[in-house]
C-alpha cells in the first residue's frame, strides 16, 4: 500500500505545473485585494532594463469557504467583487495570462465554522475539492491558494481542526487539478496539520510563503525545497523600504525561489517595489501602462441548499433554496465530461428535473442566480443515478469497524418524538473500552445527541443502547437482549415524549419512562460517531430516521420496506446502489449518505429481506425473514410473534437440538408452564395464556443452547 501511495505521489509531482523558464528568479508572487483594487494593475509593473513583468503569480484575494448549516456542507462563496472578476474573466483574468502570468484564486475562511482543517470525512473534503476544481475550470484560472484564517472552527455545529482534513483536501484537489498551481499561505491551524497517515501536504502543493509581513521566516512544509518557498513577506505600504531591501537580500543570499508581495494598490508602487527588485534582480521597477481604478461589483448571491432527490436510472430532481425573487440557470454533466449541458435558463422555481441520464452513472450539476448581473456558479454535491448491473434491492453495505462509515451532513432531530430503525448484522463487537459500536445518529455533545449503538462502558458490547439528549443530559436506555455475531437483526428505537423504547425484530426489548424535548442538531453519521474507534463492524441495510415515534405494529410489519411518501420520514437509505461511494435518500429530503473508505468490496449480496418479492404482504415477509434469521442462529423460533389469542402459535426446535425444556414465564417472573420438546415444529396451546407479554425460555438437553424470547399476545 505504501509503495502504491509513493508511486502515486511521484506521478502527481511530475504532473505539477512548472512556470516558464523566462520567469524571474526569485519568482514574484502578488496578492491583490479585489474588494478595493483592480487586479489588472498587477500587469502594469515591469523591470526597467529587461522589460520582464515583475509578477509571475497573481492571487485574487479572496473567495471564501462558507458553511450551509441546513445541508451540513462547506461550499465555495464569492462576494460581489470576486464575482465581478470571475464572471468577466476575459476582461480581468485573460489579459494577465496573455502576459505570461498565472492567476490563482485564494480561499479564505468566513467566520462560519467551515475551514480546510475540519472536514469530517474524505468525501466531504472531496466535495469541496470538486467545487474548487469546477471553479478553476469554469473561469479559466491557474490554480488555488489556501489561507486558513477567519474560519472560527466550531461555529454552526462544525467540528474543531483534525489532522486528516487538510491533507485529504489537497490530495483530492491535486488529483482533480494535476497541472494547476496549489499554494499555501503558511498560517492558521493548517500550518500545524501538514501530515497524516504517511501523506504530506507538501507532496501535493507547489508553493508556500511566510504570512508574517515584514519578517523573514521560511515555512516548514516538507518536502518543498527552497525554490518553492518565500520566507519574505512584504505588505505594500506597511513594510518599510529599508525592511523590503533587507528581506530581498536575505532571499537572494539564502537561495530561495519566491518573493511575496501582498496588497498591491491602485496607486504607484514603484518606489517600494524597486527597494526589493534592485537587490533581487539588479533593476528598478517601472510602470509600463497607466494604473486602472476599480468599481465594486453588483451584489448577486448564488443559491445554497443544493441537493438531489427522486433519483431513477434516467432522471433526477435538482433542488435549491430561493435567493429573493430572482431566476436561475442550471446545468449538468457526466462527472467524466468537460462540457456542461443546460437544464433550465431563467427558471423561477426552486427545483428542476433532469432526464435522459445513464443508469448507474455519476453526475455534477451547477446553478447561478440572475440578478442585474449573474452570480458565479455554485456546484452541487455529485450524485449517482440508480440502476446498473446489480439488481435494485439486492445489496447491503459491509463496514470494517475502523475507517468505513457514512455521513448525511447536518440533521436537526430536535423535538418531542423520534425513531431510528434498520437492519444490522454485526461481524464482531468492540473488545476495548468503552465497548461501543455506533450504528446511527448524531453525537455532538452530552447536551446535543440522538443515537443508536451497541455497548457502553457499563453495558455489554453486544446489547443495544438508545441515547437522546434532554435537558442537557444524556438519557440512556439499555437493551436486555445480547445479540449474536453474524446474525441479521432488525433494530429500532423510539421516543414519543413519555417513553424510550428499543425493539429487536419487531419485539419490545426494553423501555423506560422519559419526558422532555430532544436536543439533537449536528452531523448525522452511520457506523460512526465522533471517534472512529467506535465504528460499527458488520453489514447494514434499510436504515430509516423518523421525526415521530413508530408504533410496534408499524415496526414489526414494515421492517423490509415502507410505502413512500411517508409522514415524518426524515431519511431513508436502502443501500440498493450496489456500487459507488454514496447512498441516495429515498425519503425525498435529499440527505444522501456520503461513504468514507468504501469500494466495490463493501457491497454485499447478503441481505435480510427477500429480494424480488416486494409485492408480498408484510406479514409473509416478516415470517420468512424471521425463519431465515432463526435458521442462521440455529435457535428455536416462535411464529407468528406478536400474535392474537385466536391465532395458532408454533414453536420450532432446530434439528441440532434433539430434545430440550421449554419454560413459559409471565412478566412477574412466575412460571406458567414447563414442557419437554423434541426437534421439529410444535403447536402450542394458548388456553393457559391471556393477553399480555410473556417470557419463553428454551434450554437444550446438552446445554449448548439457552435461549430467551419475548412472546406478545394481543
TrEMBL record:
The keyword ATP-binding does not apply. Residues 302-393 form the Fibronectin type-III domain. The keyword Signal applies. GO terms for molecular function: hydrolase activity, hydrolyzing O-glycosyl compounds. One of its GO terms (biological process) is carbohydrate metabolic process. Residues 1-21 form the signal peptide. Keywords: Disulfide bond, Glycosidase, Hydrolase, Signal. Residues 26-284 form the GH18 domain. InterPro entries: ConA-like_dom_sf, Endoglyc_H, FN3_dom, FN3_sf, GH, Glyco_hydro18_cat, Glyco_hydro_18_chit_AS, Ig-like_fold. Belongs to the glycosyl hydrolase 18 family. Chitinase class II subfamily. This is Por secretion system C-terminal sorting domain-containing protein.
